[in-house]
Amino acid sequence: MPRMASPPQTARSERTREALRRAAMVRFLAQGVEETSAEQIARDAGVSLRTFYRHFGSKHDLLFADYDAGLHWFRRALADRPDGEPVIESVQAAIFAFPYDVDAVTQIASLRADELDPSRIVRHMREVQSDFAHAVRDHLEHRSDDPGNEALAITVTARCVAAAVFAGMEVWMQREERSLADLAELCRTALTSIADGLPVR
Amino acid sequence: MPRMASPPQTARSERTREALRRAAMVRFLAQGVEETSAEQIARDAGVSLRTFYRHFGSKHDLLFADYDAGLHWFRRALADRPDGEPVIESVQAAIFAFPYDVDAVTQIASLRADELDPSRIVRHMREVQSDFAHAVRDHLEHRSDDPGNEALAITVTARCVAAAVFAGMEVWMQREERSLADLAELCRTALTSIADGLPVR
DNA sequence: ACCAGTTTTGTCAATAGTGACAGAACGCGC
DNA sequence: GCGCGTTCTGTCACTATTGACAAAACTGGT
Known about the structure:
Two copies of one chain form a homodimer.
Chain A (H helix, E strand, L loop, with lengths): L10 H21 L6 H8 L3 H7 L11 H13 L7 H10 L5 H14 L2 H26 L7 H23 L6 H16 L6
Chain B binds a DNA duplex (30 and 30 nucleotides) through helix 1 and helix 3.
């Protein structure tokens, strides 16, 4: 269960990963996620089952395979913000500049919504929030003059920023109508609402 | 993998659960967590492997079996706080009044630290934080005059409160010396630091 | 092209975790 | 105690994951 999503090194392994990704996507779309076995994917990709698990910690990791790239993108976007800009602004700018691949996102999203155990999505969201918080924390540490002395303040801030963004997502998810614009609005409101104190006392 | 920790109903099943808990603890302490198989535990408890998994979503859930009780306790403690008290105070009061069973905690903690994959602990912590946030949110919703209209504010606040508490824990965990008093101090500081705005801008 | 060291795969063998279905045990009204 | 609907278990069969170890492919230097 500890998905260790082993990081690939050589071009060869990257080819294998790509083959697995493709094979999985084809099967997933054709017959559904739970109806596709890991062995099937491995065979389609022309590798052994064991090799499959060397590249992806679990069958379901394939559904979130694009996630790492997004995280890297976010970290870089944060780093590219001008010095001295308030965190909240930096985070907003980084989030809203994200280059969505609408087709891919839509395709995966439909799979996730239909075939996937909701608890799995929730768990993944928690992981994403955690990584998000770490990214923000690293950003703050990098900015700080004396990170060691501000450890608590930095950690608290980073985690709260992440909490706010994901609170926005949570509220958005519970709505009937879900537009990208609404999501952005909710996240923006959530972030600005914590800058000067908690919105509810 | 979706650990569904099925909620027990009858006295009989409670007996089974208890037997499994005990059998597991004995084995875990004697030979370590990873060196104990689920089948072994089931056999020791006198039930089938399948029955084991009906009561505990996974072998590792047994290590956190006491957790649900703690969560319930926290929810009740929150509900018992006087009306009109600021959330942050309520949460602090609820946290610090928690009745630890020092022996049990120590025993389990040593197991967790030695035998367990760190990523497993991290994952559990994320789950705990999430449940914690939900508890706070329910508390706020209960207090609010118009929860529907304040959905975002309530969710943001609940999640940030949880984020602060767990930020305190994170910092504490990274220290060499870890005393209960330090933990309390860190959580207190973390919580008060977000009341009037983020500690880092 | 050849050798030595590194990375990636395949094979084997266990353990972990689940769905489906039938039988056993339990709680309740008569 | 008896019959009946509900809950709990055991058995079977299958998929998901992982550790250990050896063979195969890839790399850089000569």
